[in-house]
């Protein structure tokens, strides 16, 4: 566990298993071998983005890296593991945690009561801005910002909708406790449960807040557990959605460059508008399903 701020820490648990490509041998690395350091920071629209990294020079596997991006301050934005030409068989469970000595302030943060309404306000506002402030060229910063915001709005909707449902619906909560591997493996003593009657609910909320909601495959599974429907089955445009998520990653973490350092140029007005409509249609289909199941 590495402290990175007054109420923040990076947790890293378990064992990483990495297969050496030439020999096929699997090497195990324990979580306590990682030493997390802040290796870079950038000023962005909502404050500072900090890149935390743990680096290991393995005698056989070579350079291994684990990265965590914090943006805005106090919020886990992305994770990344690099094992070179080797194969990552099993990774650590790691991420940003909130240290809450004073009343669990992070858990007490209230999600919006109407995530769909918040999303639609964002959709319409971006749509109004694009014709006036967007540009025709596909490499312009303002276009990338509006594109990235659209994907972020999707993530926020997915997260807030899921958290609201699980925290309000006892059956959904029980399904998460029973079926989600990360939640079900947590253990508590009787003393801990007696001291804090709401311990289980708090831990579930913490877990759901820590999910990376741009990982649509994982979110698909979580919705299958909590709502008992799969979100990716509601769209025929899965490839376009996954592409949008990957492009957003390059916008946010590489300043609009791909992994080879080439500047990405697809962000024309037309592309940004089409992506907004794609995401809005996806959210609309999810919201219909959510409301139908909530009323039944």
Q: Name the strands of the widest sheet in spatial order.
A: 5-6-7-8
Distance between the termini: 44 Å
Total count of strands: 10
Largest sheet: 4 strands, antiparallel
The secondary structure category is alpha+beta
How many H/I helices? 10
* Unreliable residue runs: 1-6, 100-108
Q: Give the ordered list of helices and strands.
A: EEEEEEEEEEHHHHHHHHHH
How is this structure best described in words?
- It contains ten helices and ten strands.
- By secondary structure, the chain is α+β, with helices and mostly antiparallel strands.
- The N and C termini lie far apart (44 Å).
- The strands form three sheets. Strands 5-6-7-8 form a four-stranded antiparallel sheet, with no helix packed on it. A three-stranded antiparallel sheet has the order 1-2-10, with no helix packed on it.
- The model is unreliable at 1-6 and 100-108 (pLDDT under 50).
- The longest helix has 28 residues, at 141-168.
């Amino acid at each position: 566990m590495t402290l990175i701020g007054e109420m923040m820490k990076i947790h890293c648990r378990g064992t990483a298993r990495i297969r050496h490509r030439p020999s096929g041998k699997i090497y195990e690395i324990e979580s306590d071998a990682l030493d997390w350091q802040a290796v870079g920071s950038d000023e962005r629209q909502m404050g500072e983005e900090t890149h935390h990294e743990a680096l290991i020079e393995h005698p056989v596997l070579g350079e291994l890296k684990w990265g965590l991006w914090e943006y805005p301050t106090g919020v886990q934005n992305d994770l990344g593991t690099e094992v070179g030409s080797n194969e990552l068989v099993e990774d650590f469970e790691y991420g940003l945690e909130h240290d809450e000595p004073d009343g669990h302030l992070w858990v007490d943060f209230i999600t919006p009561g109407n995530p769909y309404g918040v999303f639609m306000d964002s959709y319409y506002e971006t749509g109004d801005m694009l014709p006036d402030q967007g540009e025709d060229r596909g490499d312009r910063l303002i276009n990338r910002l509006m594109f990235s915001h659209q994907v972020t709005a999707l993530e926020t909707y997915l997260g807030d909708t899921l958290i609201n449902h699980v925290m309000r619906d006892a059956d959904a909560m029980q399904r998460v406790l029973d079926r989600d591997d990360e939640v079900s493996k947590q253990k508590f003593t009787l003393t801990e449960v007696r001291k804090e009657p709401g311990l289980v609910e708090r831990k579930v909320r913490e877990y759901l807040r820590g999910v990376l909601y741009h990982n649509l495959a994982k979110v698909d599974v979580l919705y299958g557990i909590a709502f008992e429907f799969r979100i990716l089955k509601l769209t025929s445009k899965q490839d376009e959605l996954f592409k949008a998520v990957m492009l957003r990653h390059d916008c946010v973490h590489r300043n609009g460059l791909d992994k080879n350092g080439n500047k990405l140029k697809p962000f024309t007005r037309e592309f940004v508008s089409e992506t907004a409509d794609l995401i809005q249609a996806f959210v609309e289909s999810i919201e219909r399903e959510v409301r139908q199941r909530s009323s039944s």
